[in-house]
Amino acid sequence: MAVTFVDGNVTTNGTEQSLFDVTADKHYASWIFAHNMQAGDTIQVRVYTKDQNDGVMRKYVDAAISDSQTTPAFYIPYIPAKQYKVSIQRTAGTDRAYTWLRAEA
């Protein structure tokens, strides 16, 4: 099984911003690098996958990350999905740049 990597970056703006929204029958994993965060910053990371029973995107992960990070990579483990979306939202502090990496196989 070949693994493909896709990466990018986003600067938060206070709204929920999609890092990516992909549709394919694959296994996905993601990393968000939060090394730019400082004390007082909070981001919300959300992962959505498609519910095959009714075709609706459902929240799989909803995690808050706060303050300066000593382990600055937030990892979302491999999950099989037909559609996979990851978003980020700054909920406190200052807008910052975040890089991300997605693996798919």
Briefly characterize the structure:
The protein is an all-beta fold and 105 residues long.
Topology (SSEs and partners):
Layout: E1 4-11, E2 17-33, E3 42-51, E4 56-66, E5 73-92, E6 97-104
Antiparallel strand pairs: 1-6, 2-5, 2-6, 3-4, 3-5
Intertermini distance: 6 Å
If you consult CATH, what is the topology? Answer: Immunoglobulin-like
How much is the average pLDDT? 94
> What order do the strands of the largest sheet run in, or round the barrel if closed?
1-6-2-5-3-4
What would CATH call the architecture? Sandwich
- Beta content comes to over 45%
Q: Domains counted in the coordinates: how many? A: 1
Low-pLDDT windows of residues: none
Report the C-alpha radius of gyration, rounded. 14 Å
Largest sheet: 6 strands, antiparallel
How many β-strand stretches?
6
Describe the structure.
The protein is 0% helix and 70% strand. With 105 residues, the protein is mostly beta strands. Strands 1-6-2-5-3-4 form a six-stranded antiparallel beta sheet, with no helix packed on it. A hairpin with a 4-residue loop joins strand 3 and strand 4. The model has no long low-confidence stretch (mean pLDDT 94). The protein has strands spanning 4-11, 17-33, 42-51, 56-66, 73-92, 97-104. The chain starts with a strand and ends with a strand. The chain has one domain: Immunoglobulin-like, CATH 2.60.40. The chain is globular.
